[in-house]
Write a structure and sequence with these properties.
heterotrimer, A: 293 residues, mainly alpha, ABC transporter involved in vitamin B12 uptake, BtuC, two-stranded antiparallel ribbon, two-stranded antiparallel sheet, 4 strands, C: 385 residues, alpha/beta, Rossmann fold, 2 domains, seven-stranded mixed β-sheet, three-stranded parallel β-sheet, globular
Chain lengths: 293, 359, 385
């Protein structure tokens, strides 16, 4: 029973990683770049949600919408100002720019909102569901977190596979030049991808802060790296892969902490990643591409 | 006389010009700074930057070998540096018991740091051989995190019976005369500072020597062939995996040496210093200096270490200016229009230059 | 193209080097020997994850300097640089401060950087008093290195003694941040003293800053802990207390001085901290006039209430001021003379400030003062007996 409750808390952590990893994977799939500033968009999202909920006292749904709107606009702006001029540059140049954007957002937040942490308000009444005669308690927040993650994953998969825009995205991911020839506006597809990724970051920020309530300017960096790891574990570019990778990473992290050694958690998590990549070099659900000469 | 002229011609021929310029810049910088130090015309600020700058330059040169010539992105430089730094510090403390010459102890420590780091490079090289692109990057990042976590839990003590290692908790059980050299999360804080600017410059020259000789040899050409087209390279009989591993190990050895130089330059050292951000920082030096361009790496590393210090006057806005400079440099250097005009300026200057000569 | 970039970069490089040395050159003009002010230097994290501690100390010290300068006697100039909580940067800060002409020093705010530069101060014979670097190793670096706050082991011992004496519980669970020397230092001495005082440490959970989000509070609950000891800073404290309460588990929480500031976080529901005990030398709500005036000034500057870091920064500057005036120092004295006075005065100095009454310093540079236990009742700090 104890194991079950740790497992659930692992799934909760994993769901949050999964939502962030979805953002990474979408952008990587289309723009073929690692958006290192993604974690910092989450941080900005957390501050926006904090101001909306606490300072302005807006209801949860309104705050969520405002948060998504701000993050989406921020994502598109970053893309237009920093990444779009580098469309034809090397991937390393884009990577360094993304790192620059990440530094910029962190330091801007530090200047604007100070370094002292802010405490995210309670957004849900912490009720419990009791199972097995009260031996296992699961709070509603955990259920909502997991449910949101599943819903987002299903919606994204449907969107990419069933809609026309999704088709355009897949086309861009396969071959940008060919997609352009077919009349697809590649630039707007990329902007759309950034918009979706940043919107997901806003949702992730709300769930992250509802569970772990301190809001600081460096809040996004570690979840960002872990989610990036999760995306690679699942196979970067694959939507179900990001979901699976996120969940696995969360579960491994919590189980390793409790049952193996809490000091060495990170070493264990990253060793698992290396082991998985040894046997599946493209991640769990990644497509193995055969190179042609 | 003729011989000298010939040698000079050879040194500045197309084949050798790049390395000659690199060596010259390093030696010239050394002479200028050393003179300034001797005559007391140098601020403490610059003096304090010298040893870390040398270490970062060596680490960046080693990374440039991987990114520029092997074509693989590595995010684990901090891990190799950490191995070099921590074990270099331990080696220095150990050898200092038996050898009185500081120079000899420093050399031995650098060798130990380099060898151990090279061993780690070989270890990480095995999974690396199977992977490409961003998967490789994430494995090296993971490796860096693992090293950091392990070092955070490492305790090393030295007493009259020799070295004592223990893990997670301090179980070194030393004799009363023992000294804990590495104390888990606190790290090493009883280090005797052995690194000097001269040692740093010699290490840079050594790294340049190794890298230039490697890339201009048969092996180096094979490494570049793997970068340009792996499949074509293997089809003409180049053992791709062997050369990838070779480049990785050489890079790890040099980075480990840089780590030792860094570790012995401060009296205290923490494992948490060697995190993902440090790897990224070194990568930034390499990309800004130009892939495969060793001189550029030296210049950009120096520049990026000096800028944040020079910006101290701006206090609160320091780091934000730094990030904007970073983005701006990347945007400008990749902007076709601006580079076009710069090229035209250059051509214009070139036209002016030979005219004067003929006059 | 690449070459062009290199040329551009080298030009920039030379320019910034010139800027660097130029800036320090200006500093040299009014440096160490003579001058009209006493220059106090120091460094602390003003950016990055630990920025709040550096900013608190810096602001506290600024208030002290403004007050002292308003008195009209000895004039001070303060320069606290950003070391980003990193030893290498702290060494750069130290060099820049010497270029600036620093006379006496506040060392560094955090432990790691303090350890990295303490022996440089020692070698150069500059008096340095860290406001909040609490590892005992710091002052062990030399006789010029002093400390304003408690040492880590003192806190661990005081906490264990209090828990045992007041019978808050016999089963204790400890959360320790294993990559933070402050946390490991306090935890180690706490466990030792707890064993001596008959408390049972039923478990310890170690984490690092890389995985300081998800806390398995159920471990403490299952172990049957009556007291949860938190040798941490307040962000981690907040997350752990919340994780416990989410489980419906309400033990006695016992924090150390890093807990200070928890109540000042914007948006915090103070009810969650009801009944928490913690050790601190300073409470901004204390009714005495000095504290109230300091709190008002601090609030005016940054918009929130001061914590013990700010008070430590304030006290360091005043302790230096008291020593200098008692030794008859004047602003035109050379750095060496000022440091001789400092070293002489601190043997006998007794200073009463915000963080303690009649504080004295022993030969090792450690401060002698008693930790105070506070308890949170109805959202306010109350001195626990």
């Amino acid at each position: 029973m104890k194991f079950l409750s740790y497992l659930i808390s692992g799934i909760r952590l994993g769901s949050i990683y999964a939502i962030i990893a979805l953002g990474y994977t979408m952008v990587y799939g289309i723009a073929k770049m690692l958006n290192f500033a993604h974690g910092d968009v989450i941080m900005i999202g957390a501050y926006v949600a904090f101001f909306a909920l606490y300072r302005a006292g807006l209801p949860l749904i309104v705050s969520l919408l405002a948060d998504v709107a701000v993050c989406t606009v921020l994502g598109i702006t970053i893309e237009k100002l920093a990444y779009k001029p580098l469309r034809s540059a090397t991937s390393l140049a884009v990577l360094i720019t993304a790192i620059g954007v990440s530094y910029f957002l962190q330091n801007a937040a530090l200047l604007l909102w100070g370094s002292t942490s802010k405490i995210f308000p309670t957004i849900l009444d912490y009720g419990f569901i009791e199972l097995f005669n009260g031996e296992l308690k699961i709070s509603y927040l955990i259920l909502i977190t997991i449910l949101t993650c599943v819903v987002i994953m299903v919606c994204l998969t449907l969107f990419v596979n069933k809609t026309k825009l999704g088709k355009a995205m897949r086309a861009c991911s396969e071959d940008k030049d060919a997609a352009r020839l077919m009349g697809i506006n590649v630039n707007s597809v990329i902007s759309l991808t950034f918009a979706i990724g940043s919107g997901l970051a806003a949702v992730a920020s709300l769930l992250l802060c509802a569970t772990y309530p301190t809001v600081t300017p460096t809040l996004g960096s570690m979840p960002g790296i872990k989610a990036f790891t999760a995306a690679v574990l699942g196979g970067i570019g694959s939507i179900p892969g990001a979901f699976l990778g996120g969940l696995l990473l969360g579960i491994i992290e919590v189980i390793a902490k409790v049952y193996i050694s809490s000091e060495l958690t990170d070493a264990i998590v990253f060793s698992v990643l290396i082991l998985v990549l040894l046997f599946k070099p493209a991640g769990l659900l990644g497509k193995k591409t055969n190179e042609k000469v | 006389m003729k011989k000298i002229e010939e040698t000079l011609k050879k040194l500045f021929s197309n084949q050798y010009r790049q390395r000659t310029v690199s060596y010259l810049i390093v030696v010239l910088a050394y002479v200028i700074i050393e003179t300034a130090i001797r005559t007391g015309n140098i601020s403490n600020t610059i003096k304090s930057l010298l040893i870390p700058t040398c270490s970062y330059i060596v680490a960046a040169l080693a990374l440039n070998l991987l990114v520029g010539y092997l074509g693989d992105l590595c995010l684990g430089q901090a891990g190799f540096m950490a191995v070099g730094a921590f074990f270099g510090v331990v080696a220095a403390a150990f050898f200092a018991k038996y050898i009185s010459s500081n120079v000899l102890v420093l050399i031995l420590a650098i060798v130990v740091g380099g060898v151990l780091s090279g061993a780690c490079g070989a270890l990480i090289g095995i999974p690396v051989l199977k992977l490409q692109g961003d998967y490789l990057a994430i494995v090296t990042l993971a490796f860096c995190q693992i090293i950091k976590t392990l070092l955070l839990n490492l305790y090393v003590g030295i007493d009259s019976r020799g070295l004592h290692f223990s893990f997670i908790t301090d179980n070194t059980n030393m004799d009363p005369d023992g000294v804990l050299v590495i104390k888990g999360a606190i790290g090493a804080n009883v280090t005797k500072k052995l690194s000097s600017f001269t040692a740093g410059v010699l290490l840079i020259l050594f790294a340049l020597f190794v890298i230039y000789n490697l890339i201009n040899s048969r092996h180096g050409r094979a490494i570049q062939a793997c970068r340009d087209n792996r499949i074509a390279a293997s089809s003409v009989g180049i053992p791709v995996n062997k050369y990838k591993l070779l480049a990785f190990v050489v890079s790890a050895i040099l980075t480990g040496m840089a780590g030792t130089l860094y570790g012995l330059g401060f009296s205290s050292l923490k494992a948490s210093k060697f995190d993902f951000n440090l790897s990224i920082l070194i990568l930034v030096y390499v990309v800004l200096g130009g892939l495969g361009n060793m001189t550029g790496t030296i210049v950009s590393t120096t520049l990026l270490l000096v800028i944040p210090e020079a910006l101290r006057a701006f206090n609160d806005y320091r780091m934000i200016i730094y990030s904007i400079v970073l983005i701006a440099v990347m945007l400008i250097s990749n902007n076709a229009t601006i580079m076009f005009y710069l090229k035209r300026c250059k051509e214009y200057c070139r036209k002016l230059f030979p005219k004067r000569r003929t006059e | 193209m690449k070459k062009l970039l290199v040329v551009l970069l080298s030009v920039l490089c030379v320019l910034s080097l010139a800027g660097c040395s130029g800036g320090s050159g200006n500093g040299d003009a009014g440096s160490g020997d003579g001058g009209t002010v006493v220059k106090i230097g120091g460094s602390g994290p003003l950016s990055g994850p630990a920025a709040q501690y550096g900013i608190a100390v810096k602001t506290g010290a600024e208030i002290a300097v403004e007050e002292i300068n308003a008195l009209g006697g000895l004039q001070f100039e303060l320069n606290v640089l950003d070391d980003e909580h990193d030893g290498e940067k702290a060494a750069n800060c130290y060099a820049q401060l010497t270029d600036w002409g620093m006379d006496v020093s506040m060392l560094c705010v955090t432990t790691g950087p303090s350890l990295a530069v303490a022996d440089m101060y020692q070698e150069d014979g500059v008096f340095a008093m860290t406001p909040s670097g609490s590892a005992p190793d710091i002052i062990a670096k030399g006789d010029h290195i002093f400390r304003m706050c408690f040492a880590d082991p003192e806190q661990g011992v005081a906490a264990a003694d209090y828990i045992a004496a007041k019978g808050l519980g016999t089963k204790v669970f400890v959360f320790t941040k294993s990559d933070d020397e402050y946390s490991t230092g306090v935890a180690a001495s706490f466990k030792e003293e707890a064993a001596a005082k008959g408390l049972e440490v039923v478990g310890e959970y170690l984490f690092t800053s890389d995985n300081a989000t998800d806390f398995p509070a159920a471990q403490a609950q299952e172990a049957g802990a009556e007291v949860v000891f938190l040798p941490l800073y307040y962000e981690d404290d907040t997350r752990i207390i919340k994780a416990c309460q989410d489980l419906g588990y309400n033990p006695v929480f016992f924090g150390v001085d890093g807990f200070d500031g928890a109540l000042e976080q914007e948006g915090v529901d103070v009810a969650m901290f009801e009944g928490v005990y913690y050790l601190t030398p300073f409470a901004y709500s204390a009714p005495d006039e000095a504290t109230q005036s300091f709190t008002a000034k601090f609030n005016e500057k940054v918009g929130y209430n001061p914590n013990q870091f700010a008070a430590d920064g304030y006290d360091v500057v005043y302790a230096i001021y008291n020593a200098l005036t008692a030794g008859g120092a004047t602003a035109d004295m050379a750095k060496e003379e000022l440091n001789v006075i400092m070293m002489e005065q601190f043997k006998t100095l007794s200073y009463s400030g915000l963080t303690g009454e009649n504080m004295t310093w022993d030969a090792s540079g450690a401060v002698v003062k008693a930790p105070l236990v506070f308890r949170i009742e109805n959202g306010a700090l109350v001195a626990a007996d």
